[in-house]
Design goal:
This protein has 620 residues and is an alpha+beta fold. 38% of the residues lie in helices and 20% in strands. Strands 2, 3, 4, 5 and 10 form a five-stranded mixed beta sheet that branches. Strands 12-11-23-22-21 form a five-stranded antiparallel beta sheet, sandwiched between helices. Strands 1-8-9 form a three-stranded antiparallel beta sheet.
């Protein structure tokens, strides 16, 4: 009651508390203003407020004016300079990139791959935009399993805008490089060549370089056909060089350049026969401690190269740093004086002249012949022998007398028609044309030595072509490394009478008989015809009695030839150096197995004589 009453006694309403102004509370002390001075301060404050309001308005007007100008300029450029601005924008973010293409595959005649291309990656950097720190280089070296010095050397040795850090990276390595997320390191895609058969087919198939361009063999000869042409497309890049999107795909446009992938090639080579030939040749070279060796096998019916092997060889999958010694394709690049392997051609010329028959007798007494101060001799005095015996026993005296009795150019013309001094048409790069000169035909010694293989230079491939002519009854044809090459049929032409060629082929069978110079060349259960050769090499301008080349060339079966084979062993250093003991066994072993692989049935007479045991047909 008392509190409520008190509350009622309080004055209420606005009149109870009169409003007081600054005048009712004068300010005292230093700097105080009273009276008229307060009015002056109030006026100055009003003017300052008006000034600040004006400045704010001016700023707003300036912003509005700038916005209007920028909007106007933007609209103007969007209408009048649209193409220019678009071009400049794309120049900074749109890039043209190359679309890599894989090379065509190389197959053997049975569809076995000899050369394939696999997708690989590479790491690169733009040195102008990216500076790799030592820590970055160390991380990258760890990922690539390389030394930091090697990575830095590639980084420093690149161009101003591009430097390879690593190439031929496997997919898992590419993934690790991407996961490392090293600033500026980018990944590209390329293809790398692999050769499943390795050194076995290296000289025929060849190899490519680090940029996948052909360097040797088929890879070089048919490089444009195999390589194709890379394409090109537009992509949008971010500031780090990464691809944001494919603009051609987004715009539903074609590529700038459509990629053209390389085309495949099917070779005439049979990988089964190639493995066989390479193994036997390598064994013979090692066994006889020879400097080198070559082997060429042809299809007697088509002139196709079924096998081509050389020793030494190289691994095309890892050829760098191995030198050029093993890279040389000796079957087409090395020239030799073929020695007695050309004697069947001399006998063919003799039969063609009409002066001799296989039964014609030649007096070789006393076992040597002197011509212009030079002595041509046989191992022994064979007396009077027939032309067939002269060829089977490889009589130098008999062959020389036949050459001297014939017209001056008879032997030379026979060699020329057989293909010596001319390209074989095999399309392999680096082939030598050989040497066949008529300069010494006016000299008796020149005609005599030419008849048994001196004064003429030929490659193993040229010798094989000459024997292919003998196997085809006098029809000469170009050779080919391609399957079903129509050019071979177009190049075929008869150069000798079939009757004379058949007679020579029959005489060549005696070379492999027990009384001939190469019984070890006789393949088990098959007939064959061929000829040995042993030629001295020229060193320092003279013939070296310690340096020889051993040859054996022939074809099998003798009646219906299926393959032609030439074996060359260069500078054997073992106990044996002759063609009959060094090269002939390789011929016998390869021919026997090759004919079985090709499904050629054994010759009945030999199979019955040996009781079906293939080892019994080999003479020791």
């Amino acid at each position: 009651m008392t509190r409520r009453r008190r509350h009622r006694d309080r004055p209420t309403g606005r009149s109870a508390f009169p409003r007081r102004t600054k005048r009712d509370f004068p300010v005292h002390g230093p700097g105080s203003v009273a009276g008229p001075s307060g009015a002056m301060r109030k006026g100055r404050s009003r003017r300052e407020g008006q000034s600040r309001s004006g400045r704010h308005g001016a700023v707003v007007l300036l912003f509005l004016a700038g916005f209007v100008c920028l909007s106007g300029r933007t609209g103007y450029l969007a209408v009048t300079e649209r193409d220019f601005l678009k071009e400049q924008g794309e120049a900074r973010s749109v890039r043209e990139v190359t679309i890599p293409v894989h090379r065509g595959m190389i197959f053997d005649r049975n569809g076995e791959p000899l050369a394939v291309s696999a997708p690989m990656g590479y790491a690169w950097v733009d040195p102008q935009q990216t500076e790799l720190t030592p820590a970055d280089i160390q991380r990258l070296a760890n990922v690539l399993n390389q030394t930091p010095e090697a990575v830095e050397q590639r980084y420093r040795s690149g161009s101003k805008r591009f430097a390879y850090l690593a190439r031929r990276l496997a997919p898992n390595t590419v993934r690790r490089v991407a996961e490392a997320q090293i600033e500026g390191v980018r990944i590209g895609r390329e293809y790398h060549r692999f050769y499943p058969a390795g050194e076995t087919t290296a000289h025929l198939v060849g190899r490519t370089d680090v940029d996948d361009a052909g360097q040797e063999g088929v890879e070089l000869a048919f490089d444009e056909y195999l390589a194709g042409a890379p394409g090109a497309k537009r992509v949008l890049r971010d500031r780090r060089g990464g691809t944001v999107k494919d603009l051609d795909y987004v715009r539903d446009l074609d590529y700038l350049r459509a990629p053209e992938f390389g085309r495949d090639i099917e070779l005439a080579l049979d990988l089964r026969l190639q493995y066989l030939a390479y193994r036997e040749l390598k064994t013979a070279v090692e066994r006889n401690r020879a400097t080198s060796g070559s082997l060429v096998m042809l299809d007697a019916g088509s002139g196709e190269v079924l096998a081509l092997a050389n020793q030494p060889s190289f691994n095309p999958n890892d050829w760098r740093g191995r030198g050029v010694h093993g890279v040389r394709n000796r079957a087409i690049a090395d020239l030799y004086e073929p020695g007695s392997t050309v004697k069947p051609l001399t006998v063919l010329a003799a039969l063609e002249s009409g002066m001799y028959t296989p039964e014609s007798e030649i007096d070789t007494h006393p076992g040597y012949l002197r011509i212009a101060g030079k002595t041509i001799e046989d191992p022994s005095n064979r007396g009077r022998i027939t032309v067939s015996t002269a060829l089977a026993k490889s009589s130098q005296v008999a062959i020389s007398k036949m050459a001297l009795a014939m017209p001056e150019r008879a032997v030379f013309d026979a060699f020329q028609r057989a293909g010596f001094g001319d390209y074989t048409g095999c399309d392999l790069p680096g082939e030598e044309i050989g040497l066949l000169s008529a300069g010494d035909l006016n000299k008796p010694i020149g005609r005599a030595t030419l008849a048994y293989g001196y004064g003429v230079m030929a490659t193993p491939m040229q010798i094989a072509r000459a024997y292919l002519m003998l196997a085809r009854d006098g029809i000469r044809t170009d050779l080919t490394i391609l399957r079903d090459d129509v050019r071979v049929r177009a190049s075929s032409q008869p150069v000798f009478a079939r009757r004379d060629v058949e007679a020579v082929a029959e005489m060549m069978r005696g070379v492999l008989a027990s009384g001939g110079t190469a019984p070890r060349a006789q393949p088990a259960s098959y007939t064959a015809a061929g000829k040995t050769g042993t030629a001295r090499k020229v060193n320092f301008g003279a013939y070296d009695e310690r340096a020889h080349v051993a040859f054996f060339a022939g074809f099998a079966p003798a009646d219906e030839p299926r393959i032609v084979l030439v074996v060359v062993i260069n500078e054997p250093r073992g106990a044996a150096i002759g063609g009959g003991t060094v090269a002939a066994p390789v011929f016998g072993a390869v021919v026997e197995r090759a004919l079985r692989i090709l499904g050629v049935p054994p010759t009945d007479s030999l199979a019955m004589a040996t009781g079906g045991d293939p080892r019994a047909g080999r003479s020791a």
